[in-house]
Write a structure and sequence with these properties.
Helices cover about 25% and strands about 45% of the residues. It is an alpha+beta fold and about 100 residues long. A hairpin with a 4-residue loop joins β1 and β2.
Length: about 100
């Protein structure tokens, strides 16, 4: 339940709100931050992560990630498009989404 440290939170620019005159940003943490938190809270031997590639095509990858923590498994999808390392980005996305669950 402890909040993430400010230096672990990054912002992704997402445009400009013309009504308010403010820039919009999407806060996020990276997959390594999730892994470090899992190691610290439950220990490195009490969680695991696996994924299956669901779809690949036209510069896009979709994976199904399976995160197991203390014997409980949660699954979610991750996707990537327009990035340099599509599979890595999709796998990281799925890990973060599964960790939220």
């Amino acid at each position: 339940a402890q909040p993430f440290a400010a230096e672990e939170i990054h912002c992704l620019p997402r445009g400009f709100d013309a009504k308010s005159g403010k820039a919009m940003a999407f806060p996020y943490i990276d997959a390594r931050t999730v892994m470090r938190r899992l190691d610290a809270v439950v220990g490195p031997d009490r969680w695991s992560y696996d994924f299956d590639v669901v779809a690949v095509g036209q510069g896009q990858v979709l994976v199904r990630g399976k995160l197991t923590v203390c014997g409980v498994t949660k699954c979610d999808a991750g996707e990537a498009s327009g990035e340099e390392e599509l599979l890595k980005a999709a796998v990281s996305d799925a890990l973060k989404r599964a960790a939220v669950l």
